[in-house]
Amino acid sequence: GAVVSQHPSWVICKSGTSVKIECRSLDFQATTMFWYRQFPKQSLMLMATSNEGSKATYEQGVEKDKFLINHASLTLSTLTVTSAHPEDSSFYICSARDLRQGAGEQYFGPGTRLTVT
Amino acid sequence: RKEVEQDPGPFNVPEGATVAFNCTYSNSASQSFFWYRQDCRKEPKLLMSVYSSGNEDGRFTAQLNRASQYISLLIRDSKLSDSATYLCVVKGGNFNKFYFGSGTKLNVKP
Questions:
Q1: For residue A109, which residues of chain B lie inside 8 Å, CB to CB?
Q2: Cis previous bond, A86, omega within 30
């Protein structure tokens, strides 16, 4: 299947700092990538849809100025958590849709575990 | 009402048992359906797509009932390695998004 990578896999930062997470599709081009957040024992919650070359579409309740998304190429999307707070500590997962494959299943990156102290 | 609902479990079963999970979805216009598996602290991985005619992949069988708006996953001859959380995923709606259930946790015990 298609491979999606994320970097870093885990990060600890101090409250008030910003953290950038990268999501790459390694062997396919992804015009659309998705950013999810997952709190312990909860399901994935879609934060935003990232479209190459255009502005991201944010879900209701997600602050676009706090979670900056850039999708500069067909293989790279970045999520920057600005002025992070402890409540932003979570598991952030990106996914990319491989449109070469049928219904366009999503392939997930390995996730980034963010801890804000 | 949630887009996708699942019984969170956990389902505790012995090795070799057959176990079934159901998932209901609210949007009758949903187009595609999937089961994903998520291991603890890992990303979800696609287990199988669910087709209208039902489909089988080894010990796993998925079925779709559009009239009742539910999908099911049947696991036969459970293995210890099947222990995980199984996520029901539905694609559709106004913006063709993917909607995730909260997952059903399966524990297969020796």
A1: 43
A2: no
